[in-house]
Amino acid sequence: MATKEMICLTCGYVGKPITKTKGGCLIELTLWLFMILPGILYSLWRLTSKEKVCPSCEKATMIPTTTPKGKELLKKAKNQRKN
Fold first, then answer.
1. CA-to-CA distance for 25 and 13, rounded, in angstroms?
2. Biggest alpha carbon distance in the chain?
3. DSSP notation for 3-70
4. What integer pLDDT is reported at residue 35 of this predicted model?
5. Cys staple from 52: which of 17, 33, 39, 80, with CB 3.0 to 4.6 Å?
6. What confidence category does residue 83 fall into, taking pLDDT thresholds of 50, 70 and 90?
7. How many CA atoms lie within 13 A of 42 on its CB side?
8. Would you say 70 and 7 are in contact if contact means Cβ atoms under 8 Å apart?
């Protein structure tokens, strides 16, 4: 299913969100090299902690523009661009 157009509650960005994975690759690699069990647990946590975030501010505050709040924010953004 294609991602719908969304609007960020924090910065007002309109578009598609990006997927961001929490944690760091370097930490994951280090844990795998020196400690197998913590490496497995850290990898599993990273795989399950992915979230859709705003490409502009990287906050997880994006909502669909088809919701009542989304429509309201989209209307405000369009009015501000006109002025």
1. 28
2. 59
3. PPPEEETTT--EE--EEE--S-HHHHHHHHHH-HHHHHHHHHHHHH--EEE-TTT--S-EEETTSHHH
4. 83
5. 17
6. low
7. 17
8. yes
Residues, the chain: 83
pLDDT for 57: 94
Angstrom distance (rounded) from CA 49 to CA 2: 21
Please provide residue 29's backbone torsions phi and psi, each rounded to the nearest 5 degrees: -60, -45
User: Which is nearest to 50 in space by CA: 76, 26, 19?
Assistant: 19
